[in-house]
Amino acid sequence: MIRRDSPFVSLLVTAGLLAAATAAGALLRAAGLQEATVVVTYVLAVIGVALATPGGPWCLIAAALSVLAFNFFFAAPTLSLAALDPAMPGTFAVMFVVALLAGHVAARLRLQARAAEAARLQAQALLDLSGRLQDCTAPDDVVAAMARSAAELLGRSFVWYPARGDARSLGDRAAFPFPTGATVADERTVALRALANGSPTGASTEAFGSAAGLYLPVGPSAAPRGVAGILPAADLSPEQLKLWRSVCGLAALALDRVAALRAREEAAVRIREERTRADLLRSISHDLRTPLTSISGNADVLLDAGAALDAGTRRQLLATIRDDASWLRATVENLLTVTRLEEGGVRPQADAELVDDLVEEALRHAAGDAGHVVTFEAPPEPLLVRVDPALAVQALVNLVNNAVAHTPAGSRVTVHAAREGAQVSIIVADDGPGIPDAEKDRVFEAFHTSGGALADGTRSVGLGLSVCRAVARAHGGTITVRDNMPHGAVFSLTLPAEEVPDV
Q1: Which element (helix H / strand E) includes 228?
Q2: Which of 270, 396, 418, 482 could form a disulfide with 362 if both were Cys (CB 3.0 to 4.6 A apart)?
Q3: What gap in Å lies between CA 501 and CA 503, rounded to an integer?
């Protein structure tokens, strides 16, 4: 395929434009116009050659040929290179100089226009890269954006060597061949020199100039984030090298921003953990004091005056001690469960379990209350779930206790289950006052309080619903809350279903 800037194409363009100028000159002479108008057509032809060809010698050739063509076709005697008019040689010289200068100016303007367009395209490319880097949230995203720029702007392969923690060694390289299927040489030694020197190394530089790639450290000179390389780099122009340095500069800023964002997120996590720890200590110190004081006080009464008390009073004191101790045990179990599940310290020992058995076991362990009616509406067909039975029962106990604790005396709490695709939803509904919309997204947070009341009971550290969420997540399920009509709340715990075997 013949290139547009090849000598053959330039020759055809020059010949065509001069032929067109000659034809136009013939028409102008036939119309009775003077020779000066013909000279203008040849000057325009030379300008056209300057714009349509690489310029340089072609302008000189076009100017010389235009003088010869004017002499041959239009100067008397025509169709001859002889000139009868003594002033013609001067005219030819002026025509040649004017045509040559006009062509040279046109060629320079064309080059300047091309340079301006190239600069605009580079600026647009850097602007697009900056926009892509703004969307990066991880170092790998920034590296991928650099690889894309190397392919689109330079047509080169890209390699990335991440700096290790001490910024004195490099990790495993990531190569992005371009075009697809191309192999990329591993020049780790050259990249290490670039990291150590803090300056470009490789092709087109004094250090390792025979290398195939050019390697630039990316990031602060004191602690680079890594080394970026492009291959091959021996034939890169100064403009391309400048463009690539700009790409690396933008990438360095993006990596700094990502690192700062990650550090800020880690700081936020630490602050959140410290706040959670403080909330835990505050809740435990406040909420455990009441049952412990009750247990200690009732035990002292029994020890000091037990013989003087009637049987009914002694039984009531013992029942209070038992209830407070049961509450403390349940609180400790919730605390241990949510901590282990959230940290991955406990893996559910899942097995196929009948939903009816899980709910009935939970209702036997749930806090009894004569003022509430708790019923279980068994599903019409047996439902199996694959769960850890101990964790599932604990979650259901917390849901029932939460419903009883947050509804006034006389309220009803209903438990039922239904199959929903590959999940089984166990639903605990009450007809109490319900939960405000602003609180629905936060009721499953540990230690969350609403209006001065804890999230899952008036005497609790606020872990019951948090345990339910942790149990659901550990089994690959979910837990949600919505309004009950006309009033109340509905908690739905979804767990993975297990197919009922054919008998």
Answers
A1: strand 226-231
A2: 396
A3: 6
CA dist 140 → 136, 174, 258 (Å):
8, 10, 10
Residues 6 or more apart in contact with residue 92 via CB below 8 angstroms:
67, 70, 71, 83
How many residues does this entry show for the chain?
Answer: 503
> CA-CA-CA-CA torsion for 323, 324, 327, 328, nearest 10 degrees?
-150
Contact 153, 118 (CB under 8 A): no
Q: Is the pTM of this model over 0.85?
A: no
Other C-beta atoms closer than 10 Å to the C-beta of 366 total 21
Query: Which residue has tokens 């949510």?
Result: 338
Question: Consecutive 10-residue runs of the chain (503 residues): their mean pLDDT?
Answer: 66 85 85 80 83 76 83 77 67 74 77 76 78 85 88 86 80 76 78 88 85 89 86 84 87 88 88 73 64 85 83 87 80 71 70 92 80 90 90 89 87 93 93 87 71 45 77 90 91 90 60
The strand ranges marked E within 133-187 are 157-162, 174-176
The CA distance from 435 to 264, in Å, is 33
Q: Which of 392, 383, 416 is nearest to 472 (CA)?
A: 392
Residue 6 phi, psi (nearest 5):
-75, 155
